[in-house]
Amino acid sequence: MARQKLWISLRKPKIRQSWNKYNLYNLSRLAIPSPPSATYFQQKWSAKAISRPYHGGQVREKQWARMFSRRMPSVQPMDYRYLAESDGSQESAGRGSGEELAQKPRSPREATPYMQMVYHQLERRLDTAVFRAMFASSIRQSRQFVARGLVKVNGQKMPYPGYMLNPGDMFSLPPDLVMFATGQQKPPTKSLQQRTRARAKPRINVDAADAEMRAVVDQMAALGKDMDTFRSSHPDLPPPWKAELFALGCLARRATNNPGVTPQVRVDILGQLNANFDSLKAVKDFSSASPAQTQAPLKKGWERRKRLIVRRWMEGTAEPQPASTNPITFSKPYRTPWMPRDYMSAFAFIPRYLEVNQNVCSAVYLRDPVARPGLGEVPTPFPTKVSQLAFNWYLRRR
């Protein structure tokens, strides 16, 4: 099997449709080569080689050559005052271009970037629209979502990434899938055995380690006896508390009698046992106190809390309540509470031809992208010169 080429490289940078931090770095150091001795053919080839990895890098060259069209869609703004005054009958009769229009000063119009619309056909593809709607972090991920049947178009499953959207089509994705694609990943977790081996490596003084191990073992034995004494001296403990004390005692004895446990792990277990045992004793002492002693601090704290809330409300800065829509859930494949990916702000934009609702993870393809005076609706990081040379490259192949 042939080795897969590196999609994002720092040695040979290519701009991709991806939120990857290395792609952002390549974008920051993007330089358009323009050697003075390059021929026109070389300039067109270089422009095509630079722009194609970003625009439809997942599409084969032959397929894109068939999709290419020399007609660039565009619109021109009309003077609404003139349209309201005239119905066009004078122009159709050969009149109406007199001096009254020539006397009015015309505001200078910006040039229409027609050449920025070279790759406008690729914006109709379903995988590109999913990426433009910010439902995926890269064009490859959006293509994977579509190929696996996770994207619906007008309520029907559409497993073809190259499906060409029509104006008015709606596509949607599951919200959990979008949150996984655009949210931060879970931190990598190591197993207890790996952490134990990593901590056991810097072991230099054997005698000191043995002395430390004996001290920890003695403390664990003493803690186990204290737990047994506490359980026997309080026969009225609830069954869950007794089960918790029994489990803690078993853990202490198992860590004491197992010779394969390292001292650092025993220290961690000892600290955990002490914390749990202290919390149980604190709860027991609090429950055995009189109602007046227990309710007084709670009432005082509640009164202070109520005064703080009222003051912030009067100042217009009321404390927001915790959002139940973004809870901490360990079963989710992404980090909770949900947070956007790093370096996402550089790519956080939605084109004009899409209407996106992030709450339900659905979007509507309103119309085909067009060119306006001073604006090309096809997002591209390349200047007009590169797009013009790429257009001329594909123009000679039609």
Describe what you observe in this structure.
This protein has 398 residues and is mainly α. It folds into two domains: 21-73 and 112-183 and 346-395, RNA-binding S4 domain (Structural Genomics Hypothetical 15.5 Kd Protein In mrcA-pckA Intergenic Region, Chain A); 205-312. It has helices at 21-28, 40-51, 61-67, 80-85, 89-92, 99-102, 126-132, 139-147, 175-182, 192-200, 206-233, 239-257, 263-288, 291-315, 384-395; strands at residues 152-153, 156-157, 169-172, 354-357, 362-365, 371-372, 375-376. Strands 2-1-3-5-4 form a five-stranded antiparallel beta sheet, covered by helices on one side. A two-stranded antiparallel sheet has the order 6-7. Strand 6 and strand 7 form a beta hairpin. Helix 7 (126-132) crosses helix 8 and helix 11 runs antiparallel to helix 12. The protein is elongated. One of its GO terms (biological process) is ribosomal small subunit biogenesis. Residues 86-112 are annotated as: Disordered. GO terms for molecular function: rRNA binding; structural constituent of ribosome.
